[in-house]
Amino acid sequence: MSKRFALLSAVALSALAITASVVVPATAEDKKMMKSELSGEKTVMVGGAAMFPSKNIIQNAVNSRDHTTLVAAVKAAGLVETLEGKGPFTVFAPTNEAFGKLPAGTVDTLVKPENKATLTKILTYHVVPGKLEASSLTNGKKLKTVEGEELTVKLADGKVWIVDAKGGTSAVTIANVNQSNGVIHVVDAVLMPAS
Predict the structure, then answer these.
(1) Tens digit of pLDDT for each residue in 87-141?
(2) What number of other Cβ atoms are within 10 A of residue 121's Cβ?
(3) pTM of the entire structure?
(4) Structural domains of the chain sorted by starting position, each given as residue range(s) with its CATH number in brackets
(5) What is the rounded distance in angstroms from the CA atom of residue 185 to the CA atom of residue 174?
(6) Closest CA to 117 of 143, 147, 158
(7) Are 83 and 124 in contact (CB under 8 A)?
């Protein structure tokens, strides 16, 4: 009788354990990882969201909670369709924190319709034609942007830095976020063209 009781107890405990593991709700992060694993795509997490190489720059960027300011600026500049295009593009994507380093009120002023040309100039200064993986960002390399001016790559302190026309620097914090139409490198400062 005790063997049978022990066996029934073990079966009951196993059933409870299985039920508990099924009933526990998956977090949003778990669901994203499941999707990523199910799709077979190698994703990179940016702003709490999986970035899928099968999606374009805009389709991925809208899911990053660290890039809401950038997405709003891209919409205000009318660049959504361009960045959904075939490309390929290399985008140095400033985070919300990077935009927060600008003088107070700068972003609010830039997204006004009357400043669309200036905003477009700044945003296209963050885009380089072609797909440049981090391995091709070598020290001293000049990158001609879609805006027309150059950025310079600097390797220092074990990091990749992007130097703008005014001498400002931005560190690449997450490299090689592959997209269907290029690659994103997350940066920690907004890059400014000379004019």
Answers:
(1) 899 999 999 999 999 999 999 999 999 999 999 999 999 999 999 999 999 999 9
(2) 19
(3) 0.78
(4) 41-187 (2.30.180.10)
(5) 6
(6) 147
(7) no
Q: Which of 192, 194, 193, 191 is nearest to 93 (CA)?
A: 191
Burial tier of 19 (Cβ tally within 10 Å: 0-12, 13-18, 19+): exposed
Q: What is the pLDDT of residues 147-171, one digit of tens each?
A: 999 999 999 999 999 999 999 999 9
Structure tokens at 28: 């949003």
Distance CA 137, CA 160 (A): 8
Kindly report, residue by residue over 58-92, the tens digit of the pLDDT. Answer: 988 998 999 999 999 999 999 999 999 998 999 99
Tokens of 19: 């039920």
Angle 151-153-158 from CA coordinates, rounded to 5°: 150
Where do we find the tokens 């960027």?
A: 61
Query: pLDDT tens digits for 2-20?
Result: 444 443 344 333 433 333 3
Cα 76 to Cα 55, 70, 82, 101, 120, distances in angstroms: 22, 10, 13, 20, 9
